[in-house]
# Entry
Amino acid sequence: MSRQAAALTLVLVLGGAALLAVGNLLVPPGSALHVPDFAVPLAGKYLCLAILALAVDLVWGFAGILSLGHAAFFALGGYAMGMYLMRSIGTRSVYGNAQLPDFMVFLNWKTLPWYWHGFDHFGFALVCALLVPAALAALFGWLAFRSRVTGVYLSIITQALTYALLLAFFRNDMGFGGNNGLTDFKTLLGIPLATPGMRCTLLLASALALAGCFLLVRWMVRSRYGRVLVAVRDAESRTRFLGYRPEHTKLLAWTVSAAIAGLGGALYVPQVGIINPGEFAPANSIEAVIWVAVGGRGTLSGAVLGAVLVNAAKTWLTGQFPEAWLFALGGLFIVVTLALPRGVIGLFARPGRTEPEPGPAPAEAAAREARS
# Structure
């Protein structure tokens, strides 16, 4: 990925969010340039999903791990933030209980579960939104990678993980709201969520988070570690014979990717106003893979572009032709796979540009550079 593509991505993300915020807050409602209130959280939602796509691209595009369960990390980050938002309601809840969320009062719970303590602090919730998905990913990855589970078997296991979490969070006795999830949020850091200022703040925060994650992942894949990661993707056995530990290399990317997905979920929840077990659905993880494939796998910028384009199309199609969306999504994936193997971002490559001649094997090149 060139510097120009990276710079353009950052400009579009940050500049676009800033323009939407200005158009909503400063342009009069009667003007043709006014951005309606509903468009601000919708754009923020797209940016949060782009963070998830970026996380998927890190492990799929550069580590060769096709994850069909990344929605689980996204949802865990969302639940961490949702727990903070529920604790922030206080006596303004339906039952007026400052200690217990409404669903716990309804289910006749007497005390707050131990794992809810601390979520009355924003900083604690944000740290948990990063660390809980990362810890789960680290444990899962350590067990899977040390056992050398790869390919379709690993993909199936990741899908089983998110489905298991889906079933667990549906249970009322888990203490996360059951099938209704967490909702009826009022404030964030003491500021009402329904105000235009907070909506625009969350949009800008999502843009900044996406830009920060983009720069972090770009730095990772362009570093010496990134070259070893690509070597593991292309020739894992050869990389192992050269003295590297592929399971450690993949585990770091997998864990960082989960933390990035959790951050996206934490920003997503206050903008959509709800988090429920449906976010764990395996279909959400599959959609994230499609975003990356449509935009351009292994390009980072393509992951962001694919997430925004596909979700914008989903918003329009589900409003105009709700029955056709799934068929359109499947057809889009087939067309891109057959006609655009480099994704949409491949269309912006310079005409006539040819790929460089293949050099040394990736694993050998990585080893030579790492030892120099």
User: Anything to note?
Assistant: Residues 352-363 have pLDDT under 50 and may be disordered. The chain has one domain: 3-348. The longest strand covers residues 182-183. Residues 3-348 form one domain.
